[in-house]
Amino acid sequence: MEPRHAAALALVVWWLMTPPFTGVGPNPREASLDRAIPDPEAPLSKWLWSGSFESVDACQHEQQKQVADAQKRELNLPVAERGGEVVKDFLLGECIAIDDPRLKGN
User: Is 14 exposed, middle or buried (CB count within 10 Å of its CB: 0-12, 13-18, 19+)?
Assistant: First the structure.
């Protein structure tokens, strides 16, 4: 690899992006069933920033950490309130180079 190409690769910053949440409901019969779920079909320009990293490996490591942390928090909730939506959100997350054209949107 040419030195100038290596330098260009070193300048890439990675963002951990997670899908936005979308509401499910209202449920007129049971309001407790109203909830928000991750929307992985949303355009990447609408996704939420969850951190910046110098490498894709560091980004993926943080994603795994966030999944584990969300799973631990989920276990502390009453059973009736466990939905796993935050865990799913981080599982659906992606490490995206900041120069990815999908971030610009329409």
Answer: buried
The encoded tokens of residue 83 equal 């939905």
The pLDDT assigned to 50 comes to 94
Measured distance CA(20)–CA(30) in Å, rounded: 24
48-78 per-position pLDDT tens digit: 999 999 999 999 999 999 999 999 998 888 8
Distance CA 11, CA 94 (A): 19
pLDDT in tens, 93-102: 999 999 999 8
Dump strand ranges (E) for 10-61. Answer: 14-18, 21-24, 35-38, 48-53
Cα angle 99, 101, 102 (rounded to 5 degrees) comes to: 120
Name the residue ranges covered by the structural domains of the chain. Answer: 14-20+38-104
In this structure, the dihedral spanned by the alpha carbons of residues 57, 60, 62 and 68, taken in order and rounded to 10 degrees, is -140
Which pLDDT value is given to residue 31? 60
